[in-house]
């Protein structure tokens, strides 16, 4: 019998939402790690009962948790993220050099083929790797030591590495994104990296087409076409058809192209979803209407999806890691809001309903599909 | 025996109920107490002191005998009442937020 498990990270704990394939009735467990910020939880594609969670706190720092039974029980693993070698500096908000300092793990990405192999994207921006289920972490320092590293500058949320995409067709290729440095790609399993920001235009930096400095909010991929990526930048929705060598703007008829999340239908690689947000100073939907926009043409032509979503007096935000898709025959779409709602659509976005309404502010949403 | 009181989040993390009692060899200082605490509960490494610098995390405080010892050097002997176990060494979260 098919089943989905939705992993929700919030400002005050983690929640696990489970349903059968109809996705109509849900069991909710949590809060796990009550009182802690859970930036991200994700399951291993190689062993869906292996979960990793990033647990952090302004008081007590970073903890990493691991589960071997789908989130029923957890054990702590190593929380030591030591930068490799001389840490050097990046730019601070005022443009002065600032030493790299570890703050938290934003994103955990288990490898496709080994539940003990997992990547961590951290603030200040760097990528770490564990080959033993989190017992020890090693920085893939070629990224941070890129020639442009001293010029990277934090976005409002910090200098965070928030997106890690693994190429299922090439185990040595990965894509990452950093606010506000931009997107990078490795073709040698993380030893060396290169910026992939050509085609991006960011009017908030001195040179709008600079090699780095772009505030990329999220990148998404359909695993059947790993060379095609979709990006929600600070402003602008973009796509690339050549693994980031060149990006093209596909905002089209969106009412605003500021936003955080973007995702791709699991079976239709040209069907993509965004949640437009009014502006970078007003982090809420236009006109108080919470609308997901769907494009079935890989961008440019967008339609609002509103059925079941609040269409008045709604002023929540949807953060960058808070949308996910399942892979059931009828693709399910999920997103969480800063108001604590997790919405689900079991019909590719046509209709929506809240699974839960009153969680703490949602930081991340991931979905596991059990066919 | 040294008594240590931890905030609830750290007790939950380390699966501790109640106070912790520790044997500390040699001078009883912040450093030796926290070394013994982390040796007993490795999961607490990095949550009270930074992994690398061993500096107190900024939003934590160390109290004992009605005094704030947070800014004392980590090798300064703790009060006799802490060393004898008559008074606990308190680790607590600073008030932050409204």
Provide keyphrases for this structure.
heterodimer, A: 371 residues, mainly beta, 30 strands, 0% helix, globular, B: 98 residues, alpha+beta, Ubiquitin-like (UB roll), 5-stranded mixed beta sheet, 3 helices, 19% strand
Number of strands of chain B: 5
What is the count of DSSP helices of chain A, taking H or I runs of 4+ residues? 0
Helix content of chain A: under 10%
Oligomeric category: heterodimer
CATH topology of chain A: the name is Methylamine Dehydrogenase, Chain H
Fill in the CATH topology of chain B.
Answer: Ubiquitin-like (UB roll)
CATH architecture of chain A: 7 Propeller
- The CATH architecture of chain B would be Roll
> Helix and strand string of chain A, N-terminal first?
EEEEEEEEEEEEEEEEEEEEEEEEEEEEEE
- Largest sheet composition of chain B: 5 strands, mixed
Query: Tell me, what is the CATH class of chain B?
Result: Alpha Beta
> Which class best fits the helix and strand makeup of chain A?
mainly beta
Helix fraction of chain B, binned, reads: 10-25%
What's the number of domains of chain A? 1
> Describe the biggest sheet of chain A?
4 strands, antiparallel
Strand order of the largest sheet of chain A: 3-2-1-30
* CATH H-level superfamily title of chain A: YVTN repeat-like/Quinoprotein amine dehydrogenase
Pair with the biggest interface:
A-B, 13 and 18 residues
Estimated radius of gyration of chain B? 12 Å
SSE blueprint and pairings:
The complex is a heterodimer of chains A (371) and B (98).
Chain A: E1 3-10, E2 13-20, E3 27-32, E4 37-43, E5 51-57, E6 61-67, E7 75-77, E8 89-91, E9 97-99, E10 104-110, E11 118-123, E12 126-130, E13 138-139, E14 160-166, E15 174-179, E16 182-186, E17 194-195, E18 216-221, E19 229-233, E20 237-240, E21 248-249, E22 262-264, E23 272-274, E24 292-295, E25 303-305, E26 323-325, E27 333-336, E28 342-345, E29 353-356, E30 362-370
Antiparallel strand pairs in A: 1-2, 1-30, 2-3, 4-5, 5-6, 6-7, 8-9, 10-11, 11-12, 12-13, 14-15, 15-16, 16-17, 18-19, 19-20, 20-21, 22-23, 23-24, 24-25, 26-27, 27-28, 28-29
Chain B: E1 2-5, H1 8-14, E2 20-22, H2 30-40, E3 60-64, E4 67-68, H3 80-83, E5 89-93
Parallel strand pairs in B: 1-5
Antiparallel strand pairs in B: 1-2, 3-4, 3-5
